[in-house]
Amino acid sequence: MDINVAQLFQTINLNVIMPEVILSVLGMALLLVNVFVPSKSKGYLAWLSLIGIIGAGFVAVTGWGTTVSSFNDSVVQDNFAIFFKMIFLLAAGLAVLISDQYMSREDCNHGELYPIILFTTVGMMLMAAATDLMTIFLGLELMSISLYVLAGFNRDSIKSNEAGMKYFLLGAFSTGFLLYGMALIYGVTGTTRIAKIASLVVQVGGAGNTMLLIGMFLMLTGFLFKIAAAPFHMWTPDVYEGAPTPMTAFMSAGPKAAGFATMLRLLLVVFPAMKAEWSDLLWILAVLTMTVGNFTALRQDNIKRMLAYSSIAHAGYCLVGFASGTATGTSGILFYMLSYTFMNIGAFAVIVLIGKKGEPNGTVMDYAGLGHKRPLLALAMTVFMFSLAGMPPTAGFIGKFYLFSGAVEAGYIWLAIIGVLNSAASVYYYLRVIVFMYFKPGEEEFDWFTISAPVALALVVSAAGSLIPGVIPSLLLQFAQQAVKLI
Amino acid sequence: MFDNVWLIPLFPLIGFLINGLLGKKIKNETIIGSIGALAVFSSFIVSVMTFIKLIGLPSAERSVNIKIFTWMTAGTFNADIAFLIDPLSCLMLLVVTGIGTLIHIYSIGYMHGEEGFYRFFAYLNLFVFSMLLLVTGNNLLLMFVGWEGVGLCSYLLIGYYFHKKSAGDAGKKAFVMNRVGDFGFLLGTFTLFWWLGQTHGIWTIQFTELAKNANLFPTGGVVTVITLCFFLGATGKSAQIPLYTWLPDAMEGPTPVSALIHAATMVTAGVYMIARMSYLFIRSPETMMTVAVIGACTAFFAATIGTAQNDIKRVLAYSTVSQLGYMFLAMGVGAFTAGVFHLMTHAFFKACLFLGSGAVIHSMHGALHHVHSHDDAQDMRNMGGLSKYMPMTYGTFLVATIAIAGIPGFSGFFSKDEILWQAFANPLHGSLNMLLWGLGACAALMTAFYMFRLVFMTFHGTCRIKAGAEKHLHESPMVIVFPLIVLAILSMVGGYIGLPKLIGDLVGGIPNYLEHYLEPVFANANAYMQAHTHHGHHSHALEWGLMGTSVVIAVVGICTAYVLYIASPEIPKKFTAAFPALHRAVYNKWYIDELYDFMLVNPCKSLGRFLWKGFDVLVVDGIVNGVAHVVMAFGGVIRYMQTGQIYNYAWSMTFGVVVIIGYYLFK
């Protein structure tokens, strides 16, 4: 490595990572300010974070349409990165909105929450923008370590502690695979820049090079763990169930999208020559993941656990689009991850409201009668469930439509059929919630909670985001298509 | 140019959302009603502005596609959310939003105090939204969304009094019959899309694109198949033989609904669709003949039933079916302008008639309620002599009746006479023309008869309402009377925009404005007709003669009604006694419902019961439950692998990695 320090500084263009800088600085500032904020007023930190998140979003979109590399080609600002950054910022914004009400109720309203959410977001954004294995790893670890903290944030809850611990141990385990894979690839190619690796793949023998092959799959394993693809999914239900609900919402949307972002960039930019290999693997994993997720979700009464398994299934649907490798399929992933962020966090926002302190039960049965006693809330939940189930005219439907048509275009008819069958099976457990809300008489009065303004805002945004792209898909889809064009 | 066209459907949609979501909380009827009416009125204003802009353009440029956004794309298939503004859609916009506004205003008074007031206005606005999509959509798919939307609203509003079994049944009947038609619409769309794409590589469902490529379509053959499919859709929505029986039952809905949906707008959608694709229909002589014959037969057949009904709304319902028959007759003989003309004038006078009957029913209902009578408020045998209690209602009702009966000078005369003349003189159907004209003329005779029978039985003669109730009869409030007056004026003067050339020349060269206005829309169809048929020459004397015949027919019908129901009311009873079987058959609507029940509904039910008890419960349920058990068991097994132990999870991951890498290393 012949790095000339003076040359290195010339390549630095801070604008490329300006959104990350904004959130990092804000996060550190909030940590300091937090000391002086009384515990009843931590909500102000949420609003401050939200302002920062929106600001970062504005800064990020100004780069749309341009491709600028910086830090000696280790990060890039392109449409692909910006699209994903929007997803992360959205997930973070919604999570921040629904946090205060929950954390106050659970008596764990510690101000560090918001800086940690911001740091997680920075990590995810780095992952999407990274064009160097080291930057990828840096982003991944920043995200992961913050997530371990968030999962175990409710210190007084055994379940939350368990979630944090499990996530940490298994996460560390998967990082081992990832890092080993990276090391092997570095060993073969002698560089960590993904553009350079890409140009060397064919030269060193492609799939015929065993070390490269093992390296690719080991690295893939690390990301498959993050997106909770079977058989690397087992941590998901335990962690999602134990973590504070707003953080579960955040985890199910943001980091999953980050995993997909990096996987897409790696496989489509670095390893297109080995598509035959990874495409087959993703085919099988898509089927496995969808099936395991959906079929287990069928048996769940606990709604958080049900959504955890459902989130595994949704990663499976995205893998269907991924396996196809076509523009329709990959832009479908971007579309789907964005829609999924809306609908899934929306559903979790409702769970945040319905839950009681300590979350003693949280089963589907608790929703009986909600349709009559809280009609608007039930309507919002219905929209989320319909969208998750993939019914028209919601975003979930259009998303699945594009994912599966990608598979059909690539000739994977059977994969599309299995996907549709899985989607049909999933309708059962989503509709069950709706059936309970509208058709079962409820004993609960639902009078123990009020909907605070931030949660109401999150619900409205999520419902709109789950519906509007379903009616006007082109609104989002054109951006998703432009985003994947670059990679 | 037409940048704000998207506002037209948007206003009613907003009205629907506000009333539908918040109506229950608003409670105040004035606010809810005003939101509903204002939403449609705003659309009307924008429609008028659009219309003015459109006629400002040279006539060749009066067809503008306004794309809002790409709706969906999949391979060669593309559908936009886009509007087509041309003379035809603009005319429909004015009719739908104009009459829609009046009926919304009327409903504020009519629905006063009804349970679910907000629900009514929400549905009504949703209906207007769907109808506007239907008439402005620039492609078949968007039109179909509107087509289904109006069907849904029709179902919801027919069943508005859902606690009444008859209302629920009527709603279901309308829905099922419409579904049969929709099936035709879809098949037509698929065939059209597929055929044009396969043979010419043009994959489109957009109307202007289709019109541009109209000359690629052959005469007959596949076009016959396509257009017959579409026509099946039209018979369902527009209540033509054989799918007409739902419309009379649809009178179970509140009267404003009957006026707006089941007379003025939705039921004309089939006519509109044929007009929209006139360039296709004209290319199939077989379809044109079918349309003409079905139209003429429906006009005649429904009129016969109308002569013997005693329920005021049922008479109007059969009259609607009959008048829709005229419109299809016009379409079938290639007189597209005349058909659209009749669509418009019919919307005026039939809306007026329905709203007037609503005012009568309202008043009757109140009066009967006062004396605790359970007499039927809609039965004309309980009415009579109402003109002195409700002079305004009577006056407007009479104007509209004269219009529909075809008395010269009123709107109905011009449009109906144009259709009859074209049925006689069109170059398409040769010797069949006499039959078409004959059926139309007979129907006109009966129309004049039953409409004046209705007027005489309701407003003239002695008052037959239960003793003591008559002093509670009263004129309706202004909010109800005002729309009646506007519609009566329109029924009176609305015909002058389509003055026949014969009369126009006579009074100093007043042109047929409507024909000129609609000309670009039907240019392709008319050019095709010019090129492919031999125009026989008809003398002016013949045209004058037929026009005179129409007038005589109308007068005879009215006089007959006068003699039978005012001068010597004993004659109908004698007639009924002399021909009991005929009267029973007509009174019972020729037993068509019973025939359908016997031939279609009951066999279907039996088959359904067999499939349910025999096939479904034993075979399908067995399989489904079996699969469900297997699935559940599978889910259970996976769940047991979820032990909660970290080392198990780690093993699972390691296992995954080893299998994956092992497979690729040793394959």
From TrEMBL, chain A:
Q: How does it assemble?
A: NDH-1 is composed of 14 different subunits. Subunits NuoA, H, J, K, L, M, N constitute the membrane sector of the complex.
Native species? Trichlorobacter thiogenes
Stored HAMAP family: NDH1_NuoN_1 (MF_00445)
The biological processes this protein is annotated with in GO are:
ATP synthesis coupled electron transport
Instruction: Cite the GO molecular-function annotations of the record.
Output: NADH dehydrogenase (quinone) (non-electrogenic) activity; NADH dehydrogenase (ubiquinone) activity; quinone binding
> What is the protein's known function?
NDH-1 shuttles electrons from NADH, via FMN and iron-sulfur (Fe-S) centers, to quinones in the respiratory chain. The immediate electron acceptor for the enzyme in this species is believed to be ubiquinone. Couples the redox reaction to proton translocation (for every two electrons transferred, four hydrogen ions are translocated across the cytoplasmic membrane), and thus conserves the redox energy in a proton gradient.
Homology family: Belongs to the complex I subunit 2 family.
A Gene Ontology cellular component where this protein is annotated is: endomembrane system
Locate the transmembrane regions by residue number.
16-37, 44-65, 80-99, 111-130, 136-155, 167-188, 200-225, 257-275, 281-299, 306-327, 333-355, 376-399, 411-431, 451-472
The record, for Pfam families, names: Proton_antipo_M (PF00361)
Q: Which InterPro entries match?
A: NADH-Q_OxRdtase_suN/2, ND/Mrp_TM
Localisation: Cell membrane; Endomembrane system; Membrane
Report the superkingdom from the record.
Bacteria
Q: What is this protein called?
A: NADH-quinone oxidoreductase subunit N
NCBIfam families given for it?
A: NDH_I_N
TrEMBL record, chain B:
Record GO terms (molecular function): NADH dehydrogenase (ubiquinone) activity; NADH dehydrogenase activity; quinone binding
Spell out the GO cellular component terms annotated for this protein, sorted alphabetically and separated by semicolons.
endomembrane system; membrane
What Pfam family is a match for this entry?
Proton_antipo_N
Q: Which NCBIfam families match?
A: NDH_I_L, PRK06590.1
Membrane topology term: Multi-pass membrane protein
According to its UniProt entry, one GO biological process term is:
ATP synthesis coupled electron transport
**Main location group:** membrane
* Membrane-spanning intervals of the chain: 6-23, 35-55, 81-105, 117-135, 141-162, 174-196, 216-236, 257-275, 287-308, 315-341, 347-368, 389-414, 434-456, 477-499, 544-565, 615-640, 646-666
Full protein name: NADH dehydrogenase subunit L
* Cellular location(s): Endomembrane system; Membrane
Keywords from UniProt, A to Z, are:
Membrane, Transmembrane, Transmembrane helix
Top-level taxonomy: Bacteria, Pseudomonadati, Thermodesulfobacteriota, Desulfuromonadia, Geobacterales
Domain spans labelled NADH:quinone oxidoreductase/Mrp antiporter transmembrane: 138-426
Start and end of every NADH-Ubiquinone oxidoreductase (complex I) chain 5 N-terminal domain? 71-121
